[in-house]
Automatic annotation (TrEMBL):
PROSITE patterns per the UniProt record, alphabetical: RIBOSOMAL_L29
Entry keywords, A to Z: Ribonucleoprotein, Ribosomal protein
A GO BP entry: translation
Molecular functions per Gene Ontology: structural constituent of ribosome
Keyword Ribonucleoprotein annotated: yes
GO-annotated cellular components: ribonucleoprotein complex; ribosome
Recorded family membership: Belongs to the universal ribosomal protein uL29 family.
Keyword field contains Oxidoreductase: no
Name of the coding gene: rpmC
Record HAMAP family: Ribosomal_uL29
Gene3D superfamilies in UniProt: 1.10.287.310
Record SUPFAM superfamilies: Ribosomal protein L29 (L29p)
Protein name: Large ribosomal subunit protein uL29
Length: 67
């Protein structure tokens, strides 16, 4: 669920796009569940949001390097 940048760089681009979509869906579900009943560890939301940002940053960097 929570990945470091080194792990993200090892993933190929197609799989990275799929992982971003899956993580965003999971994030949205987690936020919805948290609004209904509090999570045991609300810091998970912050960690997941940052992981998604790392993935999107890596994807954008790959796009810029290919041009």
């Amino acid at each position: 669920m929570f990945m470091k940048i080194a792990e993200i760089r090892e993933i190929n681009t197609k799989e990275l796009v799929e992982r971003i979509e899956a993580e965003v869906a999971g994030y949205n579900q987690m936020v919805l569940n948290h609004s209904i009943s509090p999570l045991d560890n609300p810091a998970q939301i912050k960690q997941l949001r940052r992981t998604i940002a790392r993935m999107k940053s890596e994807l954008r960097q790959r796009e810029l390097n290919n041009k």
